[in-house]
Amino acid sequence: MASASEKREVRDDQWAETVRSTAQTHLPWPIASLGLPLRRAEGDFGPSLRSAFCGVGVYAVGVAKKTVKKTTRKARPRKKAGAGLLASVPPALGPSAPKPIPLDEVLGQPQAVGLLDSAISSGRLHHAWVFHGPEGVGKFTTALAFAATVLDPSSKPDLAGRVRPDPESQVQGLLRAGSHPDLHVVRKELAVVSRSDQVRASKQTRLAKEVVEEFLIEPAARTRVLAGESLASKVFLVDEAHLLGMEAQNALLKTIEEPPAGTVIVLVTPSEDRLLPTIRSRCQLVAFGPLDASSMEAWMRQGGPDLTGIDAEWAMSFAGGSPGVLRAIAETGLGGWHGELKPALDRLQAGEGVIELGGLLAKLVDEAAAAAVAGDARASKDVANRVAARRMFKLLGESFRGAMRRAAAVGRAEEAEWAARCIGFVDVAERQVDSNVSMGLVFENLAAQCAG
């Protein structure tokens, strides 16, 4: 009769083989690229290994574990969704994830990069950070570059005295492949692979407390996967941190107050004021600003979006130094909104009544939101509506600001005053949408006020 250790070894081999076959079936890159052993640790291996793989967007372990369990008991119906969850996981990491760039290549943020360089060079790295500033100006890009530097044991001062990693190191290879097991990107979309049925079924309107616990707090308490003498052992990038509710922020606060050794947490947000004062006070704040004209031009040369068919001058003005906004103009139809609304806004400025304007604004927003959630049953139409509405308000505000500047430049005081009033109406309308006032009513009222 086989001994207990022999039986365990057979089960281990079965588990490892199931992981390999599951990974080959569901993952677009070889599991060998992780550089991790496929051997269970003694005791309850599941959560720790699952967390390590979840941190890099690899969920084969969870599926494999479920497959093995089917040999000992009947699986519940929800277990059948394992492969489907793999397909719906957002590309937080993995082959399709954004690749980290060197800190030297971050455009238009010399103050932010300088602050990070000083912290890295000191060797005394703060454990919690808030990267804040306008949308689309490089906060998350810089966070990835920061993580790539502090996770790599090869990082050392270059000829200019700045600490930089060896671009050919094993760690940089893993990061470029999106498979570094100690880099965790925490986003609200991780709800779709939560261990909780309720969280998986929920609309992705916020960063749930359960997601923070499962994908940040618990992994932070565990040992790093890759050994090495790096400045940080694990890095957690919390994208859209302003979507953390009060419960989630309070749960995160304890980890920030008593961080596990070597753990670095970066909260990325355009609205740091929505974070608890107790969190902000314990974090190092790094401010980001709009890119200047030369940095925007450099970004466009490096692979900016195709603006064919879009008023490029308007697009650059509307983007306001944000590469992310400029890309959104090209990819989300915002340039089309400008073309469709311009005749109506020109008539409005000329003093004509535009009865159809309110309905047109609501229609464009609704269509954009519907397109954003198409094919994703878990995506929230309400969130998509708010995102599209914010873009519409930005477009309208920029249009009225342009009208005010042009009128003031030629001494048309009455037109400038009208445009200034409209800017105020737009601000009020945006607050009304945030307060859950019917979007259709808000746009109809806005159009009527601007025509008055």
Helix content: 40-55%
| Unreliably modeled segments | 15-92
Order of helices and strands: HHHHHEHEEHEHHEHEHEHHHHHHHH
Strand content: 5-15%
Describe this structure in words.
The protein is of the alpha/beta class and 452 residues long. It is globular, with a radius of gyration of 25 Å. The chain contains 19 helices and seven strands. Strands 4-5-6-1-7 form a five-stranded parallel beta sheet, sandwiched between helices. The longest helix has 29 residues, at 381-409. It has helices at residues 4-26, 46-54, 60-69, 82-88, 110-122, 139-150, 170-176, 197-201, 209-220, 246-257, 277-280, 293-301, 312-319, 323-331, 334-349, 357-373, 381-409, 413-434, 439-451, and strands at 128-132, 156-157, 163-164, 183-186, 234-238, 263-269, 284-287.
Q: Key features?
A:
five-stranded parallel β-sheet, 7 strands, globular, alpha/beta, 452 residues, two-stranded antiparallel ribbon, 19 helices
Sum this structure up briefly.
This protein is α/β, with parallel strands linked by helices and about 450 residues long.
Task: List the topology elements.
Layout: H1 4-26, H2 46-54, H3 60-69, H4 82-88, H5 110-122, E1 128-132, H6 139-150, E2 156-157, E3 163-164, H7 170-176, E4 183-186, H8 197-201, H9 209-220, E5 234-238, H10 246-257, E6 263-269, H11 277-280, E7 284-287, H12 293-301, H13 312-319, H14 323-331, H15 334-349, H16 357-373, H17 381-409, H18 413-434, H19 439-451
